[in-house]
Amino acid sequence: MPATLGTRVPLVSGPDAEYANLDHAASAPCLRAVRDAVDEFLPWYASVHRGAGFASQVSTKVYERTRDVLRRFVDARRTDSVIFTRNTTDALNLLARSVPRHTSVVLFDTEHHAALLPWRGPNVRRVRTPRTRLAAVSAVDSALAATPEGPRLVVLTGASNVTGELLPVAEIAAVARKHGARIALDAAQLAPHRPISVRDLDVDYVVLSGHKLYAPFGAGALIGRADWLRAAPPYLAGGGATKAVTSEGVAWNSGPERHEAGSPNTVGVYALGVACDQLAEHWGAVLAHETELLTRLRKGLEAVPGLTQLRLFDDPGDEVGTLSFTVDGFEPGWLAAVLSAEYGIGVRDGAFCAHIATKRLTGGAQAVRVSVGLGSTAEHVDRLVLALRQIVARGARWTYGKVDGRWAPSPDPREVPAFLRG
Question: 182 falls in which pLDDT band (50, 70, 90)?
């Protein structure tokens, strides 16, 4: 269970309420097991790899063993590299700098910005996402057929961070293989919700973030084939990436440390590994919990007048616990502010770092996003549905205005936590 479950937040009306965390897709709360493991490890935290002290040896073992934890978590090949990064965005930028020159890159235009923006130049083909999954497979096939000879890479999101819909990863990977292409899977939104098998999906690279995986300590990972990564210039130049430095030049390491210059985030890496082990041990309960909440959520939202749920695809398919919607006559930012201030509910509003996808599905507007996870309960979902019905029926009970471009209560009597005062 998350350490934050049961946290109470102030309401503008006076009393407080248990925080209804329906914003897991942005950042998931810390698991109690992760917090406890970090607390246990902190007395042993020290430098890694080159420290002779006992604490340094402990920290080095923690850091290096977590590579094996990540390989197991995504069922990677034994020879796959595990490179620790800050997050998914960092990992995808690292990969973008590591592909061979003149690599043709194919990706859908509705990708999250982390997957969309690192790829630039004439060899990048952004495919307009079609309305069915079957058509998506065909679109990638056609795009790859039109690429010139040479290395090819398909970049694909596992689950949409706007709608929660899963893309047909295995089917697209099969098409990629037909054209001799590799495939990179953005699993930021998939990894917290579903087991992943690199081998079953037949993908070459997987990227993920700890802050989506209930380990918000600033670590992520790029896991995948080592050859392109070994041949690429170091992502960062500095200590740890070097084998030897002389006045004549530098010899760089060839392993994953080649791209991990500087003192690593050992605590974050350990937290990420603990979270992955916890999820792997309890997938059955995770999936049952999410399925129950998502079914409850979708059914409840269907009864809210004027509410439209967004979908990328017209054909049915699997989905994780994330969805976005609009409500006729209500600005998403205002709705999110009212839900927070009057009901203690945390949701996301805007275009979710997937502007093309969101604006295409809304006709150019923004949306509200709800995402459930281990820090969500049935009461949270029911509270959201009731709140939306009340807001649509009678409006807000408080006054609101724009503060730095965002809606907020005006006045706002809520006090910040004690540690922020002074």
Answer: very high
